[in-house]
Amino acid sequence: MQETKYISVGSPDTVNSPLSDEYGRRSDSFTRTLGRRVVASLIPQSKGSIVVRWSQRTLAITALVMLLAIANEGWVMAAETGVKSQILQDMSSLRMAPGFLELAMFKEQVIDFSYKVSITYHSVFIAAMVFCLLMTWDGIMNSNIIQVISVNFHNLGLFIYSLLQIIQLRKDNDLLGGPGFPAWFLASQIVLPCVLGIFLPTFAYLTFRTNSDFGWRIFKITGGDKAMDKAFVFYHIFLLFLKFSLFFVLGFTIINVVLTPTSEAGKIMIPVALAVIGTVFPLIGYLGVRFENRTVTSLFIAGYTGLIGFVVYRTWEAFNRSNDSSNFNRAKIPFLMYACVGVMLLFGAIISGVLCWAQYDRGLKHVLDQERKRRSGDHVAPEIDFEN
């Protein structure tokens, strides 16, 4: 009678069994496949004749510069907080002086509002840097050269703001009677425009070189058809307006709620409403144009028209409610700038949406569907019959 052999879990016989080896190979294969897919979804990859060398360099350099700029802006915020603490400490002695209590309290209110404005601007500035990185990454991953070109203008705006930031901080310091800029505070402000100033021509050159990576891929998508190329350009312009309008409307909302006269109920309702509307309608617009649905596109146009009216109304109300001009003067120029740029971008999104509408039923949806299948690996090339 043959002896039955029992194998315990974890014994050498189990570890070295063919079943265990096969399971290990499948597990390793799944892990490697998952890792490759994650990397491919985050970093542009070369596929066949499509080379992405300059795209990868552009993304890497942009990420490095934006991280340095964000860290530098954090340095400015920390330095400004230190200067504020020093001014308030000097103000405490003024409180103790006979007859100067009301003056000290007034100056403290001015200081609090001034630094509230500054912190808001710093936060929006950092968000603009993150937005720059995301727009670069998204443009490269989708071969949208128009979007990458637009980032150059966004970078120029960041550079100009970094210069204006130095002037504004000095004005605030002089107005509040500060002790003057310490050397480390001044250094934190100067480094930022230096970094962004060097990055401006660098990114412009990278944009030029990256276009060579995009050209062949776009040709493979459109097939070189001029009408399809035109529809593809309108589609990319529309997506560009959607993304920038979303950022500027949200930036307008933040400044509106934090720095302009707003009721307590408005401080809750306005950001919630605009956050929902400002994200839902761009999604509706994308779905309408991407799938060439005229009903959904009409809903998007109506929604963005309403957004334009709302931004204009909130701007008028903010100026109309402002009683303390000394406080609002510090915030009204950036607030008005975000309102004007936001309205122009909303108009641009509507116009580009109408232009995309005019290109419906010309094959763009089909080629985008095929491209999506190629990227996901689901596309099956049609068989070619060489006999007929």
From TrEMBL:
GO terms for cellular component: Golgi apparatus. Residues 1-19 have a biased composition (Polar residues). Residues 1-23 are annotated as: Disordered. InterPro entries: UPF0658_Golgi (IPR040410). The chain crosses the membrane at residues 59-78, 119-137, 144-164, 184-208, 232-256, 268-289, 296-316, 336-358. Keywords: Membrane, Transmembrane, Transmembrane helix. This is Uncharacterized protein. It comes from Chytriomyces confervae. The lineage of its organism: Eukaryota, Fungi, Fungi incertae sedis, Chytridiomycota, Chytridiomycota incertae sedis.
